[in-house]
Task: inverse folding
């Protein structure tokens, strides 16, 4: 047992309390936006909470854009790669993504499995995560190389792992979410619960709620499968815009201390969106699930 | 010898690989036969000898099978959930509306096959005959192949690494009795990875007519499309054009139009100009599109009066004109 405990990954992650993997079978249901919100909300949950966010979507990294960190380089230190801090000098929200390693943002990463596997191993084993309360891992769609590699490399710290499944209410997405749930069962990954995203859209002119991608499917699936339903999030254009254009325009020329103010601004702007309080409830549910798991 | 092939049994995607150890580095890898996982594999010696690094032995069979397919079109997008499968299905239906043409749809999204549901044939199965696997037919002239037909239940997950996905894709191309086709549409998973590389490698000799790229208006999706266009250029696939999906939403109550996914950096049109590809058109978001996909009916036939239908047909005409 002790020998399996002593992999570089296990050593790096030994001071991480909880590792939450955000999964969804289908693409574009909001994994990255949920991961970002989860990281922001967890960071806000306590003044000392330290949160990391790791983007293992290697061929389509979105996290840097969403956190407004596009174009930041990753630094090497004697103790491994230094993650990019979204909140600057406060250093309570660290982030790592393949997006930081690309020279140009439109460069494509065309990799087959073995290279992806190696990259993920480096993300887990070579990044100086330090002490974290939560490490949120954003994954690509599907149940393939990235997911298997993640689980494999983190096998020594399996007791810290848990997953959140994101879906949208349509049948097509639920079908894939179901596959994803089968995956978690096959690899015995505990599921904290299910989030239904893009559930309804409020028309900005008349306030009428349209179910763009239908509604209620997630809750129904959670009940059927005995999953904890964490909550549903409507389509929030304000949030879409915030995460899409999070890049502060003047940041490039500013010194790191000013940049920290900017990133903090992202947090403040996030907390003003109508989704933030809804997500707060989801995070409360996640805490309950995490607690429940400890007891079991 | 090439023409006569044994009927291939349909693989069970859930079974443990019969011929590859779990961490097989892939037969073309430099590590083939030398990795830790190779110890004990029956094919270790063959891999280690370097013979496997030559061209894939499936290539001549693929070329043979594809010789009767006139046009091959890939539907790509960097990001997931932007409407690749929905668009592929609509394109298939639209091509098949011409009774004299034959269309095939191949779903290479191995981990999340949506095509069977969208086409309303989710419970069908593949039959195998001496001439190969028969595709599932939606109508006389629209055949479909997807891993979704091979799973015992829709909830089963296919947890495969690259080499196995690669193997299935080659089988889709060489073992499926596509017959004579005017169009073969390939629906892909998001990203630029194994599936994409495989399909491009296998179809290189027979020639790919081009790729249709799908995006949504927000920058997060566009940045992935930029990567996808670069991928196409790297591997030498012509980009037929860019479609902007979910572009604007018309409230069914007040008819007011709003942008759910704001084009904060100019949307697809701007991107197309920037990257020098053709902009095929923008399809507005209509909740009935998603619903049609869930029920497996053709949106174009069900709601001919929707503005989205007009947009779709316009785009399809432009694609046809390019072929």
Result:
């Amino acid at each position: 047992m002790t020998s399996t405990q002593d992999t570089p990954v296990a050593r790096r992650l030994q001071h991480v309390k909880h590792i939450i993997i955000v999964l969804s079978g289908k693409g574009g249901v909001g994994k990255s936006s949920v991961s970002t919100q989860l990281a922001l909300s967890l960071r806000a949950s306590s003044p000392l909470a330290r949160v990391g966010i790791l983007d293992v979507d290697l061929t389509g990294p979105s996290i840097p854009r969403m956190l407004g960190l596009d174009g930041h380089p990753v630094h090497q230190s004697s103790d491994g790669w230094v993650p990019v801090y979204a909140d600057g000098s406060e250093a309570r929200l660290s982030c790592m993504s393949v997006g930081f390693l690309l020279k140009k943002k439109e460069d494509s990463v065309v990799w087959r499995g073995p290279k992806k596997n190696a990259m993920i191993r480096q993300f887990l084993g070579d990044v100086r995560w330090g002490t974290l309360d939560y490490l949120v891992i954003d994954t690509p769609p599907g149940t393939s190389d990235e997911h298997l590699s993640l689980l494999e490399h983190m096998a020594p710290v399996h007791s810290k792992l848990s997953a959140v499944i994101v879906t949208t209410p349509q049948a097509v997405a639920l079908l894939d979410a179901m596959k994803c749930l089968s995956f978690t069962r096959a690899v015995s990954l505990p599921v904290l619960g299910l989030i239904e995203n893009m559930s309804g859209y409020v028309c900005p002119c008349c306030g009428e709620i349209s179910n763009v991608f239908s509604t209620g499917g997630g809750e129904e699936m959670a009940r059927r499968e005995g999953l904890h339903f964490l909550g549903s999030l409507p389509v929030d254009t304000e949030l879409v815009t915030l995460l899409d254009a999070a890049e502060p325009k003047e940041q490039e020329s500013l010194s790191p201390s000013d940049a920290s103010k900017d990133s903090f601004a992202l947090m403040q702007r996030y907390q003003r969106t109508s989704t933030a309080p809804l997500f707060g409830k989801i995070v409360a549910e996640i805490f309950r699930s995490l607690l429940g798991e400890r007891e079991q | 010898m090439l023409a006569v092939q044994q009927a291939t049994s349909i693989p069970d995607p859930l079974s443990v690989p019969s011929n590859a150890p779990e961490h097989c580095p892939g037969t073309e890898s430099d590590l083939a036969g030398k990795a830790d996982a190779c110890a004990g594999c029956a094919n270790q010696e063959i891999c280690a000898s370097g013979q496997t690094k030559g061209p894939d032995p499936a290539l001549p069979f693929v070329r043979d099978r594809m010789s009767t397919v006139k046009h091959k079109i890939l539907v790509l997008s960097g990001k997931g959930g932007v409407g690749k499968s929905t668009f592929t299905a609509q394109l298939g239906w639209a091509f098949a509306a011409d009774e004299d043409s034959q269309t095939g749809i191949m779903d290479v999204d191995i981990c999340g096959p949506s095509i069977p549901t969208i086409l309303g044939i989710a419970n069908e199965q593949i039959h195998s005959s001496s001439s190969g696997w028969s595709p599932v037919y939606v109508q006389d002239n629209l055949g479909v192949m997807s891993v979704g037909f091979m799973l015992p239940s829709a909830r089963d997950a296919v947890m495969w690494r690259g080499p196995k996905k690669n193997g299935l894709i080659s089988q889709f191309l060489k073992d499926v009795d596509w017959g004579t086709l005017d169009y073969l549409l390939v629906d892909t998973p998001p990203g630029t990875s194994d599936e994409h590389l495989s399909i491009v490698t296998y179809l290189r000799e027979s020639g790919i007519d081009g790729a249709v790229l799908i995006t949504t208006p927000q920058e997060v999706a566009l940045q992935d499309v930029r990567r996808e266009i670069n991928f196409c250029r790297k591997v030498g696939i012509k980009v037929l054009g860019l479609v902007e999906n979910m572009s604007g939403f018309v409230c069914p109550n007040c008819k007011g139009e709003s942008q759910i996914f704001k084009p904060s950096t100019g949307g697809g049109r701007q991107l197309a100009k920037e990257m020098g590809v053709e902009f095929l058109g923008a399809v507005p978001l209509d909740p009935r599109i998603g619903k049609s996909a869930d029920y497996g009916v053709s949106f174009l036939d069900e709601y001919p009066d929707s503005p989205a239908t007009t947009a779709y047909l316009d785009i399809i005409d432009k694609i046809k004109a390019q072929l």
